[in-house]
Amino acid sequence: MSRLVTSHLLDPDGLPLFSLKEINRLDRPVRERLYGAIIPDLVFERFGVDRETFCGPDGRKKVAFICPAGLGLLRIEVRLDEADRDCVFFVEVADTPFRQIELSFCLINDPEAPRFDVDQDVAGRDNCFGTLRRNIAEEVRAMRAGLSPSQVRQGLKMFKSFFQRFERFVASLGIDIIVAEPLSYSNAIRYEKYGFEYLTGKQLMCWIDREFQPGGELYRKLDGSTPFRQPGMEKTVRGRSWAIHDGILPCPWDEVKIYKTVGLHAGVDTFPGKAF
Predict the structure, then answer these.
(1) What share of the chain is helix, strand, coil (3-state, %, to 5)?
(2) Would residue 70 be called left, alpha or beta, if left means φ above 0 and alpha means ψ between -120 and 50 degrees?
(3) Model-level pTM?
(4) Fewer CB near the last or first residue (10 Å), C or N of the chain?
């Protein structure tokens, strides 16, 4: 059973719900009401979106719920305007075959902050978070502005609020485990802060910390050969993450998988004394 005390989620007939797939069988208004609880209050307060209707001051709906019947999948997109390139808030989650919930993506953008086109190459093609083709000039601009790899804008500092809501939602389905795959080193470190442990990749994370110490293999590679390999970058999470994004590791950044037991903090810290 979940270690986070919360009421079990019920359908309109009073029957308990145990998965996203079960919620997705319900009528759309019911689905949207249940899923709307995941969205942080700041989205509604800052942008004048009504929590009941999901409409903005102009009367238009600002929240899209993609939750197809027959599938254990949920995607929430909050856009201030239909034509906006970026969501203010985006989350994608899914059932797993093992009665867990996978947190696939969570992206939060400040629409008033400058945009950096790190998500596309110089020809304007999508680059899958910089894994296929890179836009070095935009990455340099983003890094110097204090962003982490894959960030196109500064965030709104509301992941904590989202995750608290999301964890309660997962607990209300009687589910104990949240799983995820961090897109970058900085993501992995941030997930540690919220109580995640490693399914795979912990040995790599510990090796990274060791080899960024003075005299280590990664420390020696911070030789100024690229903008992302400057001496001193080993001291911060963002610095390390940009160097790793730049290919400083002897292996690809993959196979790092994490999990959280709902209601418990694992206490993992693979970068002691870190600064972001």
Answers:
(1) 30, 15, 55
(2) left
(3) 0.94
(4) N
Identify any residues that bridge with 142 across adjacent strands, giving them in sequence order.
none
pLDDT in tens, 181-209: 999 999 999 999 999 999 999 999 999 99
Helix axes 185-193, 237-245, angle to 10 degrees: 150
Token couple for 182: 């961090």
The pLDDT-based confidence of 116 (bands split at 50, 70, 90) is very high
Which one-letter amino acid corresponds to residue 1? M
Closest Cα to residue 227, out of 145, 109, 104? Answer: 145
Cβ atoms of residues 172 and 6 within 8 Å: yes
Total Cβ atoms within 10 A of residue 53: 12
pLDDT tier at 91 (50, 70, 90 boundaries)?
very high
CATH class of the structural domain 20-202+254-261:
alpha beta
Q: What is the pLDDT of residue 1?
A: 44
Q: What are phi and psi of 167, to 5 degrees?
A: -65, -40
Longest CA–CA span in the chain (Å) reads 64
Distance of CA 255 to the CA centre of its chain: 17
Can you tell me the distance from the alpha carbon of 220 to that of 115, in angstroms, rounded to the nearest whole number? 33
Query: Which H/E stretch holds residue 75?
Result: strand 73-78
How far apart are alpha carbons 217 and 215 in whole angstroms? 7
Average pLDDT, the chain: 95
Q: Is the dihedral of CA 173, 178, 179, 185 positive or negative?
A: positive
Q: Round to whole Å and give the CA distance between 26 and 218.
A: 52
pLDDT digits over 232-274, tens only? 999 999 999 999 999 999 999 988 999 999 999 999 999 999 9
| CA dist., res. 138 & res. 13, Å (int) | 52
Locate tokens 């969570």: which residue? 106
